[in-house]
Amino acid sequence: MFGEELESSHRRDSQRARVEFQFKPRSVIPTDKMTKIDQAVVLAAGRGTRMRQLTAELPKPMIEVRGKPVLQHIVEGLRDTGIRRCLIIVGYRADAVQNFFSDGSRYQIDIQYAMQVAQDGTGRVVDLARGFVSHSPFVLAYGDILVDPVNYKRMVDLANNVEALISVTRGEDVSKGGAVFLNEQMELVDLREKSKPGESPSPWYNAGLYAFRPSIFDFTAKLKPSPRGEYELTDAIRELAQSGKKVQALELTGEWADVRDPEILARLNK
């Protein structure tokens, strides 16, 4: 199950939440041997065309799974592991997200928003978080991926000799996402988006949950469009690892789901 089930119906705020572009100041997190991350960025700007009519009025992250929106599962899971402030990047039907969560006070978490105007890839979306995260590390979650909440607790402790964490899982079709190549120490060697038949196989699939230090912005800033015309976050992560920085992989435990189409949604809601 994706966390403790709370009440499934909620009274929507009557006023639309205001998009915040002047982010609230924050203090730098002290470090010792381990940094405890207390802020997160959630990507929730896409419509999700494979959901067809289900996203005619709602963005995909607001589709309900087991009685509440996918995005609510994510926000509550992050909050329960010690995340105190969250930036939700919105785009398609942003009002549906903002009206539901408002400033986050109802969910005991500080929520702010940024708007993705051009749908030009995950690499560019992450750049929108630069002012929010300041000089401190952050967790990054995709707004359409559900994980067992225990995994959030494993992502918020970042060792000082690790520049980034990338979550992985087994048993998924890497042609539908990122194939992750690791060494014996579970350190990232390569990352290929939507591998083609005949390419070197990998048992590891990119599970869409990360922890980054602000150095990731140095690499997203250098991105060029991929063959499909988008700025890919995975390209920036690969370049970060191949620059000599340690990108550690973490195998997720428990339930994991990419809520990408009606068939998967139906399975989750059985």
The level of helicity is 10-25%
Stretches where pLDDT falls below 50 for ≥5 residues?
4-21, 27-31
Characterize the main sheet: 9 strands, mixed
What average pLDDT do the residues reach? Answer: 86
What's the number of domains? 1
3D shape: globular
**How many β strands by DSSP?**
15
CATH superfamily: Spore Coat Polysaccharide Biosynthesis Protein SpsA, Chain A
The CATH architecture can be named as Alpha-Beta Complex
Explain how this protein is built:
By secondary structure, the chain is α/β, with parallel strands linked by helices. It has one domain: Spore Coat Polysaccharide Biosynthesis Protein SpsA, Chain A (Alpha-Beta Complex). Helices cover 21% and strands 26% of the residues. Strands 2, 5, 6, 7, 10, 11, 12, 13 and 14 form a nine-stranded mixed β-sheet that branches. A two-stranded antiparallel ribbon has the order 1-9. Strands 3-4 form a two-stranded antiparallel ribbon. A hairpin with a 5-residue loop joins strand 11 and strand 12. The longest helix is centred in the first third of the chain and has 11 residues. It starts with 33 loop residues before the first strand and ends with a helix. The relative contact order is 0.18.
Write the layout of secondary structure elements.
Layout: E1 34-36, E2 39-44, E3 64-65, E4 68-69, H1 70-80, E5 85-90, H2 94-101, E6 110-115, H3 122-127, H4 130-133, E7 138-142, E8 145-147, H5 150-155, E9 157-159, E10 164-170, E11 178-182, E12 188-193, E13 204-212, H6 216-220, H7 233-242, E14 247-251, E15 256-258, H8 262-268
